[in-house]
Amino acid sequence: MKLKLVALGFCLSTMAMAQQDDLNDRSKKYYDIVQSGTKEQKDALHKELLETAKKSKIEGELELSINYLNQLGYEESADSLRNIVVKQMPKSNVAKQHYITNVFLKQDGAAAKEKSYKELIKKWPIPEGDVIKVGYDYLISNVAHDYAKEGNTGKAIQYLDQLNERFWRGQGYAPVTRILLNKGDTTTVIPFLKVAIKDAEYYINLPKEQQDNRAGFAAVGYPGYVAQLVNIYNAQGNYEEALALIEEAITLVPDQAPQFSGAYYKGLDVAGRKLEALQQLEILYKQGTFSYKEKMKSLYSELNGVETGFDGYIARLDQDVTKGVREHIAKSAQYKPAPQFELLNLKGEVVSLASLKGKVVVLDFWATWCQPCIRSFPGMKAAQESYQADPEVEFLFINTWERDKEYKANVASFLEKNDYPFEVLFDDQKNAETGKNLAAEMGVNGIPAKFILDKEGNIRYALTGSSPNVDYIKIEMKELIDSAKKPHKG
């Protein structure tokens, strides 16, 4: 009997593996169609997904259908199917995600969030064994964040101590440590930063053959953890320990050394290593951080005995900055017609690309939840203001990929709160022929994404990501716009 049960278990396991392989193959096929398929292929996929949804009782198939219906732009069909799955399979992964989105995340207050979390893990227990549990860690960190925000540090720590995944632990700590640092509570924060640093170093030091996505993820946050702890040590006057920590980090990840420059120069300066301190400030300057110019002048004078020559030194650095920006934007150069569009602005007025012929147009794709987008906005505001008197230049901020149904009200509130005088267009209209919104037609795969169009409506540059440095963005936008004003050389 035992042998039969083992054989049955093996058989079921084999079937499950085959089923997963089939789903993976289908997912790849669906992804390719969504990304680059014809309208006919997408229409056929839509019908296939609906047929699968009608017949299937397999959760993985239904979840796949929901995901790709959303990606095809059939949100109502996806929502309808999701509601059916939630009702018929109340303990499914689809039902769990529905609970997280519509119940857990909408709780007001830490106590309510905690109660919702406990109800969630009662219905969907945290799995045991070697299963990645980062989804649960995200929820745990969310509860801890709300308690920290309310000033209940003890409860926040209690939840942070429950995090499961070592590779993600530093990211789970981060929302709470930011709140505590803003309150000046470095005593509580330091142990968490030390743990985050040790976790990241553990993965960074793994042999190459053992490094996987978890190791890469852990390493991403490493410079930030080190910089935070170094800044605390510097503020406490513990300069030697700060300097030792940062130099160890640079030795471990030399390719990320420029990310440490802001904290590194302070320790070097205090240690009397003036030339090295100035060299770190040069790195920051070339990245577009010009706020240290007076400190650079002071170090330059100390090293040379006089201020004479400093202006020429800065002028040479400015040339390097401009050269670096030009090399950077040259990699994003292209030349092709931009898709025609007609989108509504905040006032409900239609703005079309055709109406902007004769102008260089900057399209900035963003969303209210996108922190890199928001960090770039002070620089984009400054860049827009520098072209305020130029009738040949138009900045348009394309709001896309929003997750909240009240996105229009949220956008208006966000702009008013931050005093951003942006012309926002809502990317919620689909092209009748392609079935795509503008972001998809432009090939946007991540935001922030910026496109510079020339006066004839051709895309001249396409960039993803952005610097948070205001002065760098101003220089970058000037180079992009001035280049787009010139005829294409072919």
Automatic annotation (TrEMBL):
Record localization: Cell envelope
Ranges for the TPR repeats: 223-256
GO biological process: cytochrome complex assembly; response to stress
Annotated ranges, domain Thioredoxin: 332-486
Chief location of this protein within or outside the cell: other
Keywords on record: Cytochrome c-type biogenesis, Disulfide bond, Redox-active center, Signal, TPR repeat
One cellular component term from this protein's GO annotations in UniProt: cell envelope
GO terms for MF: antioxidant activity; oxidoreductase activity
Signal sequence extent: 1-18
UniProt xrefs under Pfam families: AhpC-TSA
PROSITE patterns membership: THIOREDOXIN_2 (PS51352), TPR (PS50005)
Transmembrane segments: none
Protein name: Redoxin domain-containing protein
Lineage, broadest ranks: Bacteria, Pseudomonadati, Bacteroidota, Sphingobacteriia, Sphingobacteriales
